[in-house]
Amino acid sequence: MLTIWGRTTSFNVQKVMWALAELGVPHKRIDAGWKFGGLDTPEFKAMSPHGLVPVIKDGDLVMWESNAIVRYLAAKYGAGSFWPADPAARANVDQWMEWAQTKLQLDVIDLFVAMIRTPPARWNKSLIEAKTIAANKNYTLADGILATRPFLSGPEFTYAEIPLAATLYRYFTLEIERPKLPNVEAWYARMQERPAYREHVMVSYEDLRAN
Ligand SMILES: N[C@@H](CCC(=O)N[C@@H](CS)C(=O)NCC(=O)O)C(=O)O
């Protein structure tokens, strides 16, 4: 059975857990990271050289990097619509996944770290303001795209939607000023209709809040 190491409050672990649940892949999860520790042992470092979660073991394959794991799971267990067979169709959705990794996610997670993982007494107001502006700009762009189709990465729900939509729970629960985003809100509501999204992404992060 596939094994995943990582805590449920980790954004990157959540992406993999969401993918596993969407695909119905049997698995066992082992708590690791943050208060659970275990990332510095030689055994863990042998699996994950950077000492980070998530890590999966599926048969002989051991791998890290959440988006690469989501792609692997989609290719192995999601042939068909979750992993489009046509390389051109895959390329079209994959570009959005790269954007999630290199832009959208960074702005939201930086904001999350600045507001939730930093005690309010040490908040860097100008960083929070800059990251809020950047995040709002990304979702305003997304809002325009979502006016034309139900999913940001394309016409169908595919693996690439996971890193994109996984950001929404944190974006919509952080106490920030957001512009009007009717299409992003409708997209978020559609994601919340998916039991796997509710279970694995909408996970309280109160435990992580620094006081
Ligand atoms: N780019 C990596 C980032 C992995 C990462 O930063 N993981 C964080 C959790 S989200 C971690 O392991 N932090 C240390 C900890 O939880 O103790 C990925 O997408 O998997």
Mind explaining what this structure looks like?
With 211 residues, this protein is α+β, with helices and mostly antiparallel strands. It folds into two domains: 2-77, Glutaredoxin; 87-199, Up-down Bundle (Glutathione S-transferase Yfyf (Class Pi), Chain A, domain 2), CATH 1.20.1050. Helices cover 52% and strands 8% of the residues. It contains nine helices and four strands. Helix 5 crosses helix 8. The longest helix is centred in the middle third of the chain and has 29 residues, at 87-115. Glutathione is lined by residues 10-12, 33-34, 39, 52-54, 65-67.
Radius of gyration from CA coordinates: 17 Å
- Helix and strand succession? EHEHEEHHHHHHH
| Domains (count) | 2
Number-wise, the strands total 4
Distance between the termini: 39 Å
* Averaged pLDDT: 97
- CATH fold name of the largest domain, please? Glutathione S-transferase Yfyf (Class Pi), Chain A, domain 2
Q: What ligand species are in this complex?
A: glutathione
Map the helices and strands.
Layout: E1 2-5, H1 11-23, E2 27-30, H2 42-47, E3 55-58, E4 61-64, H3 66-77, H4 87-115, H5 125-146, H6 161-165, H7 168-173, H8 182-192, H9 195-200
Parallel strand pairs: 1-2
Antiparallel strand pairs: 1-3, 3-4
The chain binds glutathione (GSH).
Residues 10-12, 33-34, 39, 52-54, 65-67 line the site of glutathione (GSH).
